[in-house]
Amino acid sequence: MQVRELVGGSATVGGPDLTLEEAARVMIDEHIGSIGVVDGGKLVGILTDRDLVRAAAAGADPTSAKVREWMTPDPDRLSPDADVEEAAEWLLATGYRHLPVVDGDRLLGILSIKDLLWALEG
């Protein structure tokens, strides 16, 4: 099975100038643990629930701190043609819990460890 089968063809995204509070609200509303950070249609970063915890622990003001200050810039990416097993090995090796899936410059979705567990179980 390829990871393209696990992503819906679009991801929840936000701009780098969103506040952490706005980004957290999107993540809560969408029931997701990360958002792709897009600028000019290009993926420039990823903001995860771990980044939000890190910001909170550092005392960042969520109403004024920007996503660009806390995101992981230029994140690793997977091709939609990658095998699910390959993706699982990558997440285990890196410790990531979310990984963008891109086709060229187009963000197709963000693969989560939960997505992989469901796919490998089935």
Features:
globular; alpha+beta; 6 strands; 5 helices; four-stranded mixed beta sheet; single chain; CBS-domain; 122 residues; two-stranded antiparallel sheet; 36% helix
Indicate the topology:
Blueprint: E1 13-14, H1 20-30, E2 34-39, E3 42-48, H2 49-57, H3 67-70, E4 72-73, H4 84-94, E5 98-103, E6 106-112, H5 113-121
Parallel strand pairs: 1-2
Antiparallel strand pairs: 2-3, 3-4, 5-6
Helix pairs in contact: 4-5
Explained architecture:
The protein is an alpha+beta fold and 122 residues long. Strands 1-2-3-4 form a 4-stranded mixed beta sheet.
Order of helices and strands: EHEEHHEHEEH
CATH architecture: Roll
Spatial strand order of the main sheet: 1-2-3-4
Shape field: globular
Looking at the structure, the CATH topology is CBS-domain
State the share of residues found in helices, binned by percent. 25-40%
**N-end to C-end Cα span:** 11 Å
> Radius of gyration, Cα only, in angstroms?
14 Å
Low-confidence stretches: none
In total, the number of strands is 6
- Please state the oligomeric state of the protein chains shown: single chain
Quick take:
With 122 residues, the chain is α+β, with helices and mostly antiparallel strands. It is built from five helices and six strands; from the N terminus they run βαββααβαββα.
